[in-house]
Amino acid sequence: MKVNVGAKDRFYRIMIGGSIFAAGIFTNSWIGILGLLPWGTGMTGWCPIYQKLGKSTIVKKTNEKEENTQVEENIEEN
Fold first, then answer.
1. Contact 13, 42 (CB under 8 A)
2. Nearest 5 degrees, angle CA 16-CA 11-CA 31?
């Protein structure tokens, strides 16, 4: 399983999933079990739906030195 859920997305999934689960326990409802889905994807960092769609919410860090080099190359070309 390749991680495809970014940090912010993971945080929201864990919080929302945990809230749904807690509400289900508090109200004594089976619907709280549905909260385990977003909670589980947040905890593992892997979402099967994102994988099927080829999507990822991971923000890639760029190397500042590489960016500056690319900008300088573009300036030199023009």
1. yes
2. 20
- For 64, the domain range is 7-77
Report the alpha-carbon distance of residue 22 to residue 51 in Å, rounded: 28
Task: Return the exposure string of 25-62: e unless at least 16 CB atoms fall within 10 Å of the residue's CB, then b.
Answer: eeeeeeebeebeebbebbeebebeebeeeeebeeeeee
Answer whether residue 26 is part of any domain.
yes
pTM of the model: 0.73
The verdict on residue 55 lying in a domain is yes
Residue 49 maps to a domain: yes
Question: Side chain identity at 65, as an amino acid letter?
Answer: K
pLDDT mean values, one per 10 residues, the chain (78 residues)? 93 97 96 96 95 92 60 48
The identity of residue 4, as a single letter, is N
